[in-house]
Amino acid sequence: MREIEKTFAKLRNQDEGGLIAYVTAGYPEPALTPQIVDALVEGGADIIELGIPFSDPIADGPTIQTATTKALKVGTTPKGVLKITEEISEKNKIPLVILTYYNPIFRMGTKNFFESAKAAGVDGVIVPDLPIEEASEYKKIAETHEVDTIFLAAPSTSTERLRKIVENTSGFLYLVSVYGVTGARENIQDYTIKLIRKTLKITKEKIPLAVGFGISKPDHVKTIIQNGAEAAIVGSEFIKIIEKKYNDDEEEMLETLEEYANQLKKATIKKPTL
User: Fold this and answer.
1) Residue 238 sits in a domain of what CATH number?
2) In this structure, are residues 256 and 241 in contact, taking their beta carbons and an 8 Å threshold?
3) Could you report the per-residue pLDDT of 110-164, keeping only the tens digit for each?
4) Is 272 a domain residue?
5) How far apart are CA 210 and CA 224, in angstroms?
6) Are 148 and 171 a contacting pair, CB within 8 Å?
7) pLDDT tens track for 199-237
8) 28 cis-preceded (ω within 30 degrees of 0)
């Protein structure tokens, strides 16, 4: 059993959902990323998702795009992110997932990328711009290195295609909860709840369902977990905290990240203890 699968099994036994915390690696500076991850883990994050900065992040909204641009300006590279990941994995024994566009993998060479990722402690990889129809060789190499291939499904994904994605994804299915790009929203839309319930009919007892894009508040997390998702993915709100607090007080920034992660994590508990 791989680490992501173990984590979801543990969460089910504890009757709680998972909190998957995303941060852009290298933002605001590479040396701070491990400390940021430490704060999120202390706050209760169950899985960490590290974004490799890329010059054309088509799935990301303004908040993450800004973080990506700044991370690139301070010299963050894919190999640098894997070194950061290795440092994190030596200290924190929770699953680590890399989010990257396909171009950096292609430039490194798929086999070389996964050899390096596995050595760095990576448990899963998400590639938003890699369609399942073109991923057979990629997935084969990932499986050879025992790294989960995590595919995304969008609101517009047909039932037939969703079944195919579910058959090929491992670790969890990343369900994009809204049309458009990443970024905090005020409320969970009714169509998102309907989408979760529709997707669960296909994923149930096959693969854990994690929901991302627009999830930013404890009540968002509570809503999607109560409606059957096994994890919530939160990113932009953490990036906003880093952006707001970094120049003022680094220690306060880390404390605020931990506190907010804790609030989000509490919202995943299905049966709060008295």
Assistant:
1) 3.20.20.70
2) yes
3) 999 999 999 999 999 999 999 999 999 999 999 999 999 999 999 889 999 999 9
4) no
5) 9
6) yes
7) 999 999 999 999 998 898 999 999 999 999 999 999 999
8) yes
Q: Of 138, 158, 155, whose CA–CA distance to 147 is shortest?
A: 138
Active site residues per annotation: 49, 60
Q: Is 274 a member of any domain?
A: no
> Which has the closest alpha carbon to 153: 122, 178, 188?
178
In a domain, 53, yes or no: yes
SS (H, E, C) 193-210: HHHHHHHHHHHCCCCCEE
- For residue 153, give the DSSP letter: E
Find the length of the chain: 274
Distance of alpha carbon 183 from alpha carbon 225, whole angstroms: 19
Q: Which domain holds residue 149?
A: 3-266
Q: In whole angstroms, how far apart are CA 232 and each of 2, 26, 77, 93?
A: 20, 23, 27, 20
d(CA 11, CA 271) in angstroms, rounded, equals 12
Q: Check residue 274 and give its pLDDT.
A: 45
**161, 166, 170, 171: CA torsion to nearest 10:** 120
Does residue 21 sit within a domain? Answer: yes
The domain tally of the chain equals 1
DSSP characters over 212-274: ESS--SHHHHHHHHHTT-SEEEE-HHHHHHHHHHTTT-HHHHHHHHHHHHHHHHHTTBSS---
